[in-house]
Amino acid sequence: MPVGVSVTEALKALCSNKLRKAVLAVKTSQGLLDLSAVLAVDVILEPITIASSAGLEILRHSTSHVMAQAVIDIFGEDIQVTIGPAIADGFYYDFAKEIPFSSDDLEKIEARMQEIIAARLPFVRSEVTREEAASLFKNKGQRYKLELLDSIEAETVSLYQQGEFVDMCRGPHLPHTGWIKAFKLIKVAGAYWRGDEKNAMLQRVYGTAFADAKALRHYLHQLEEAKKRDHRRLGKELELFTISDQVGPGLILWQPKGARVRRLIEDFWKDEHYRHDYELLYTPQIAKRDLWQTSGHLDFYVDDMFSPMDVDNVSYQIKPMNCPFHIAIYKTRKRSYREFPLRWCELGTVYRYERTGALHGLMRVRGFTQDDAHIFTLPEQLEQEIYNILDLNMNILKAFGFKEYEVYLSTRPEKSVGSDGNWDKSTAALKLALEKKGMNFEIDPGEGVFYGPKIDIKIKDVLGRSWQCSTIQVDFNLPERFGITYIGEDGNEHQPIMIHRALMGSLERFFGILIEHYAGAFPLWLAPVQARILNISDAQLDYAGQVYQTLRKAGVRIEKDLRNEKLSYKIRQAQLSKLPYMLIIGDKEVENNTLTVRLRDGKNLDPMTAEDFIDLIRREGRTPEIN
């Protein structure tokens, strides 16, 4: 596409699937449309449509401007307009408004947006000096825009205008508002100005937009399904976990049923690691602060650490990581190359500071248990060890029901330590292991940790949502900083390579993902309660008690509901509890020494004895076997 075409021609090509290559700038009568701001590439190799990621970003950002215009039209220019970017699934705009937006307000805003869209107002771009922009926003009383302007070093800035609404924006936008076909305002939430708790609280209005109504309906259906599966709601209803204001935000209290699932996960994890030649470690919750100085965490990670504490006039730090402790165990004696690789694992609880506004149920917490492991390896073993980790990783995730992934190879960030040679070696080893495993992956430039590159694996749940879980990181830095060595075949001291890895990420987050993936209806091997005994009347109390004891002693995770309630009510309660089996006992079952077994989907199995049911649980509820 040559430079010099109009915005309309450029966007028509964009949206008609004809654009296969694009220059980064398209000259227009309104100024310069900078595609690089959105596309961030030199050449577009794939066809781009309005439904593509780049096209949707333009659509959603344009829709956010329409929303801001509608808010100003309805509530007046006394409202402060801040920023309104496109995000992964939609867009938002932050407003400073004394009276909170209501659901009725969102309906009014949507109605006004429809009028603006119907008017087919063009998005007009202009470039002005900083002084001209400052004068404009000062006259409008938009103090947040003036603050944003102060942080811009360029002598000129770009403005976009549709109708009477003007905003400072780099663009690009659609040719006119009539291109917006399907949108919806989703919710209102609080947000601190610039994400800083010390700043004013703003109101963030979230919305989304799609290329057509069908895509929008599908997305809204997914949102409703996600609400039903929300782990915070199910965690409370199923009595799995709680978060107490008295204890503190971001700190999880595992209730008996949740603790039961956690034990099952931990036992499975430990057994599989032992089978794959790992040894289990346990380490303290705190250590001298000097340890974190040596590790480099005080230089690179201090903002995510809690304040230190003094013990006997010595400064101690609650641990944000397990790795320095494992190095301390390594240093307890001289190591030989014949011992390698050393594979050490720990379910280690760590504590990291998260802003209150960022906390989210089990997904974002301040105290969590990592399924951590560190492998000390010889250079020639590195690639094979990474391959082995990937193999174990995939098999364990598959055992929990996850079969689709997004894989990223994250490279060196700007703020990092270590030589170029070590970074190149470790990045190459990660890449080769991924290729050997036959895994598709994307390069994530600059997103490695400060001490080395990494592989990140995001699992996809039943709704197709991606969740960050597994990470594999190569580290030359910590072995060097702590001065750990081994005696090589040549009799000299050499420095080992260290691999950090977590397969689930954290037990808390992984449990939250499992709750939403299964909507609380866990598979039999993970179900906190596998069956509940329901009697029809008090005449069956003795037999129900005997069955309960028999099943419990056999290891069945069993409950009993012997309340003087109608059977239909107790069945309904069991279904709401997502129980795999209900064991119904009436006079006939007592007489025949049997059970009526009802599935959670409402179907009944043939009558069976307690011993038959134990065999069924042992057969159907076996822990998954992996290679």
Low-confidence stretches: 1-47
- The fold-level CATH name of the largest domain is BirA Bifunctional Protein, domain 2
The count of DSSP E runs of length 2 or more, i.e. the number of strands, is 29
Structural class: alpha+beta
What is the mean predicted local confidence, pLDDT?
A: 89
Terminal residue distance: 53 Å
In CATH, what is the homologous superfamily of the largest domain? Bira Bifunctional Protein, Domain 2
Tell me which CATH architecture of the largest domain applies here. Answer: 2-Layer Sandwich
Range of strand content:
15-25%
General shape: globular
Radius of gyration: 29 Å
In the sheet with the most strands, the strands line up as 13-17-18-25-22-21-19-20
Question: Given this structure, which CATH class of the largest domain is correct?
Answer: Alpha Beta
Helix content: 25-40%
Q: Count of helices?
A: 20
Q: Note the quaternary state here.
A: single chain
Would you give an account of this structure?
This protein is an alpha+beta fold. The chain has three domains: 212 residues, Threonyl-trna Synthetase, Chain A, domain 2 (Threonyl-tRNA Synthetase, Chain A, domain 2); 273 residues, Bira Bifunctional Protein, Domain 2 (BirA Bifunctional Protein, domain 2, 2-Layer Sandwich); 90 residues, Rossmann fold, CATH 3.40.50.800. The chain has 20 helices and 29 strands. The strands form eight sheets. Strands 13-17-18-25-22-21-19-20 form an eight-stranded mixed beta sheet. A hairpin with a 2-residue loop joins strand 1 and strand 2. Helix 3 crosses helix 4, helix 5 runs antiparallel to helix 6 and helix 13 packs across helix 14. It is globular and about 85 Å long.
